[in-house]
Amino acid sequence: MNLKDKVGFITGGASGIGYATAELLLQHGAKVAIIDVNSEAGRKAVSNLAVKYGEANVTFVKCDVTEDGDIEEAFKQTIAKFGRLDIIMNNAGILNESNYKLLISVNLTAVITGTMLGLKYLRKDQGGNGGVILNMSSISGLKPSLCLPAYAATKHGVVGYTRSMANSMAADIDVHGVRFNCVCPECTDTPMVRSLESVDSLNRRGIHHAQALSNYVSENVDDMIKASYIAENTIKLLADETKNGAAMLITSKGVAFIDPPEHPYFTDRANLKR
Ligand SMILES: NC(=O)C1=CN([C@@H]2O[C@H](COP(=O)(O)OP(=O)(O)OC[C@H]3O[C@@H](n4cnc5c(N)ncnc54)[C@H](O)[C@@H]3O)[C@@H](O)[C@H]2O)C=CC1
Ligand SMILES: CCCCC/C=C\C=C\C(=O)C/C=C\C/C=C\CCCC(=O)O
């Protein structure tokens, strides 16, 4: 996919990985809607980006991704502003083991809702141009995380959902033109991680092994990979039209595509005639 003049929709785009990806899309000539619950950060993000890339190319829509109506309205406002939609990045996320129902709602349910609601605007057979849905998982979506079991459950859910949607819709891709991929970064230096330096914050959020994790974050955060590195690899995945159903692990050593295990039952079912 040539990113020039394409339109991206990024939830959690006011900060961290979402913001870095928004900026890189703008550098490639795309237009971007930053979708976020934090109005102050969202407006600030857009005013910074507008100075560099032009007011016509970036917009902010306040949206709580746990509210279906907010997500629908954000899609409508994005298309009203830019006239099309090509890229959906369901990226908003939180870390809160205490409030695991909210955690599931933001990190997993909203990814499914953003995919289902957004799909109808992307589908070539429903008036869209085709495109790509990129869901934000984590290395915690591929391996156990002893400090963050509920968080890991949401991120495993994102991988399972994204691969399943890709497989389920792959047979008709010529009709709808939509690809589904997810990214699984290792720990990245963002405000989310910086907020974990304090053991009080970790305890409030019910994160396991709080003291050990706080020590680890404080000692290592400066050396963690940067959000711009996640954005560079995310953009490569977005643009690569050969990739559908990919789970891309991003670490300081580079990227790796993690394949699901093969099983004849599922392989045969994927080939079933409908
Ligand atoms: N930083 C890291 O080490 C890693 C982060 N991730 C994932 O990347 C994504 C982005 O995380 P970061 O950039 O690190 O965090 P961040 O805290 O810097 O950015 C998250 C953004 O999501 C927004 N947000 C939170 N709840 C929302 C809601 N209900 N509705 C709309 N927006 C909401 C926040 O306001 C914030 O702007 C998350 O899904 C996170 O789980 C994945 C792997 C590693
Ligand atoms: C080891 C540092 C953990 C810091 C956790 C903060 C944010 C994590 C965000 C993620 O998406 C996960 C990324 C990397 C951590 C992966 C596993 C946690 C390792 C410790 C554990 O097993 O819980």
From TrEMBL:
GO cellular component: cytoplasm
Keywords tagged on the record: Oxidoreductase
GO molecular function: 15-hydroxyicosatetraenoate dehydrogenase activity; 15-hydroxyprostaglandin dehydrogenase (NAD+) activity
Coiled coil: none
Catalytic activity: resolvin D2 + NAD(+) = 16-oxoresolvin D2 + NADH + H(+); lipoxin A4 + NAD(+) = 15-oxo-(5S,6R)-dihydroxy-(7E,9E,11Z,13E)-eicosatetraenoate + NADH + H(+); prostaglandin E2 + NAD(+) = 15-oxoprostaglandin E2 + NADH + H(+); resolvin D2 + NAD(+) = 7-oxoresolvin D2 + NADH + H(+)
Tree of life domain: Eukaryota
Family: Belongs to the short-chain dehydrogenases/reductases (SDR) family.
Function: Catalyzes the NAD-dependent dehydrogenation (oxidation) of a broad array of hydroxylated polyunsaturated fatty acids (mainly eicosanoids and docosanoids, including prostaglandins, lipoxins and resolvins), yielding their corresponding keto (oxo) metabolites. Decreases the levels of the pro-proliferative prostaglandins such as prostaglandin E2 (whose activity is increased in cancer because of an increase in the expression of cyclooxygenase 2) and generates oxo-fatty acid products that can profoundly influence cell function by abrogating pro-inflammatory cytokine expression.
Protein name: 15-hydroxyprostaglandin dehydrogenase [NAD(+)]
UniProt organism field: Lingula anatina (Brachiopod)
Gene name as annotated: LOC106179529
